[in-house]
Structures are given as C-alpha cells and as structure tokens.
Amino acid sequence: MQITNTAKSPRRVHINGGVSISLLVGETKPITAEQLEQVRAKKVGAYWLKMGDMKVLDSDEAVADGPFSSGALLKAADKLTEAGYESAEQVAEATIEELTEISGIGEPTAVKLIAEAKDAVEAAQ
To answer: Is residue 34 assigned to a domain?
Structure first.
C-alpha cells in the first residue's frame, strides 16, 4: 500500500508515537495498514484524504508510470479516464469547454488540467 501527495504543496501527517509521514508534491511513500488507520484517525489526515490532497493506492496501482501522474491530473485521473482521455497529450489538446462537460470538473480545474498536461508533455520530450 502507498500514499501519495496530490496537492500543490507538501503535506505532513503525524501518526502515533511521534512519527510523521511527510510527502513532497507528487511524492509517493509506502504505508502500512496500521499507519493508514492512524492517518485517518487524525483530523488533518482525514481531511486531506477526503479532499483528495492525499491518495492511498494499493501496491499494484502505478503512480509515476500512469498517464496522469501528479497534481490535478492525478486527482482527476478516474474522471478523465472514464471520459475517454488516455494520455496527458489528449488532455493538453482538449478545450476548457470539453473538460467542463465531465461531471465534477469546473472551469478552474479544467484550466489547471490543461496547463499540467502541457507541462507533462513538454517534460517528456
């Protein structure tokens, strides 16, 4: 099991015994089931998980290898995939209007998605 930071800023969650999990933007770290329960029990950790700033992944889920690997793209990966977007290139070429047709994606998010996708395409070249 892994936990990843999908927010635009670093996240730190304190768990029992004075231990904390710190994640940089887009960083993924292994997490045990016990640690996850402790994160969920903390007010801040529970909030970040609920808001999507942190995402828990099964060990067989790919993060860095996926087409939507960080930030807003990672947060919206399920919605984008369900709408037929299979790559950052496709999102980069989409219009704001096309993306806002997807349930749960408003104009500010669509703008972020397109910008992040263009950055990802540029970085891959």
So the answer is: yes
